[in-house]
């Protein structure tokens, strides 16, 4: 590239231009007892242009007026624990948005991605420059920019990460954010509430909150699904019933399936013809290749990353039926106010299984599910025909 072309990397370091109130103000803290954004020093100004008009940087870049004007920044997206200083927020030439989030793997950045990407997109549609930043410009802000690149360029996580990394070397989302970005991509760069892995992700978030406060926060009340026994206009045709009293307990859509990894049978599923003229070493190599190939097909080959229902020689992993894991459902008593307990049939009081927000359950197949709401298979039965569903008390 020619040296006079527009630079894609625009890192700046200029400690002399930072205001004196950017360093930690211990005296102010002792008097007021609170910390403000002005009380911290984010280090030298640092920002890089990732794509045309989209800058990724640190706090110092977002609080330095000279830098903002120099790079013609008109929009600022802040991902931090506290908002920007007042003089930045009140600047007439700036449009700002603040997302309160810490740089911790268990923090939920996934549910902020849509609004962040919408804010970035609107700024770029206006052909105006936008700065996305966190404290250091390494994890939180880079996660949002990676998500934007994934969505706009139809890239997977690694491809988007490599592109952003090539523009700014200070890029490294924490492990929790990486997992959430990959989930975001699998859902088509949007929130798909019916996607099984998303349901499990939400349950785990709720489990973390229950672990802290011992009750389910109201913000997670939508995790508890309506009682399928109540009259519906279009009831699902396949349901689980109490084996004793036939009370409807769950619809098939409530099922949280997992794959059994304990039924690997090489002799049954992988066969080498006796007529092959191969040495033992060649046969072993071919056997291993077949196992690897079939594991890829059955385990991770699906673009939706959901359990496979392969049959015949290609079935190595199948949906486990040792324990029936389901979503929380409205008839389950006390699940909002207890960390764990029994699940009894709301009609006949027969024990159906257990639940735990904090400990989870290890299935006999070896898979651990947490949080766990589950039925014991011998206590329920699958019904394949539901006609006029009546309210059951």
How many structural domains in the coordinates? 3
CATH architecture of the largest domain: Alpha-Beta Complex
Oligomer: single chain
Q: What is the overall number of helices? A: 11
Largest sheet at a glance?
A: 5 strands, mixed
CATH class assignment of the largest domain: Alpha Beta
Radius of gyration, CA atoms, in whole angstroms: 27 Å
What ranges have pLDDT less than 50 throughout 5 or more consecutive residues? 1-33, 263-276, 290-317, 388-393
CATH superfamily of the largest domain: Protein tyrosine phosphatase superfamily
**Reading side by side through the largest sheet, how are the strands ordered?**
1-2-5-3-4
Spatial shape: elongated
Counting DSSP E segments of at least 2 residues, the number of strands comes to: 16
- Secondary-structure element sequence? HEEHHEHEHEHHHHEEEHHEEEEEEEE
Decide which structural class fits the backbone: alpha+beta
Helix content: 25-40%
Short description:
The protein has 393 residues and is an alpha+beta fold. Helices cover 29% and strands 17% of the residues. Helix 6 (140-153) runs parallel beside helix 8 (175-186).
């Amino acid at each position: 590239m020619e040296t006079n072309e527009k630079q894609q990397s625009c890192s700046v370091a200029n400690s002399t231009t930072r205001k004196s109130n950017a360093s930690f103000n211990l005296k102010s803290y002792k008097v007021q007892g609170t910390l403000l954004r002005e009380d911290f020093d984010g280090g030298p100004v640092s920002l890089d242009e990732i794509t045309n008009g989209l800058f990724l940087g640190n706090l110092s870049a977002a609080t330095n007026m000279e830098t903002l004007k120099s790079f013609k920044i008109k929009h600022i997206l802040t991902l931090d624990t506290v908002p920007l200083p007042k003089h930045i927020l009140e600047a007439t030439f700036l449009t700002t948005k603040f997302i309160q989030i810490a740089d911790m793997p268990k923090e939920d950045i996934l549910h902020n991605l849509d609004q962040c990407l919408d804010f970035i997109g609107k700024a770029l549609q206006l052909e105006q420059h936008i700065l996305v930043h966190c404290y250091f410009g390494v994890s939180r802000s880079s996660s949002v920019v990676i998500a934007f690149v994934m969505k706009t360029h139809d890239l997977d996580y690694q491809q988007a990460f490599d592109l952003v990394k090539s523009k700014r070397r200070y890029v490294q989302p924490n492990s929790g954010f990486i997992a959430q970005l990959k989930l975001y991509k699998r859902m088509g760069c949007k929130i798909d509430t019916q996607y099984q892995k998303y349901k499990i992700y939400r349950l785990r978030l709720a489990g973390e909150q229950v672990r802290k406060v011992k009750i389910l926060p109201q913000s997670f009340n939508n995790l508890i699904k309506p009682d399928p026994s109540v009259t519906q206009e279009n009831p699902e045709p396949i349901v689980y019933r109490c084996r004793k009293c036939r009370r409807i307990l769950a619809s098939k859509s409530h099922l949280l399936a997992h794959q059994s990894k304990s039924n690997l049978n090489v002799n049954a599923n992988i066969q080498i013809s006796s007529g092959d003229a191969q040495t033992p070493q060649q046969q072993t190599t071919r056997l291993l290749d077949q196992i690897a190939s079939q594991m890829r097909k059955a385990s991770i080959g699906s673009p939706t990353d959901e359990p496979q229902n392969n049959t015949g020689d290609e079935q190595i992993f199948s949906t486990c039926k040792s324990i029936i894991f389901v979503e929380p459902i409205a008839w389950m008593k006390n699940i909002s106010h207890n960390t764990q307990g029994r699940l009894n049939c709301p009609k006949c009081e027969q024990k159906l299984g257990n639940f735990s927000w904090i400990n989870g359950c290890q299935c006999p197949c070896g898979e651990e599910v947490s949080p766990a709401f589950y039925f014991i298979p011998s206590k329920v039965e699958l019904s394949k025909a539901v006609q006029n569903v009546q309210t059951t008390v």
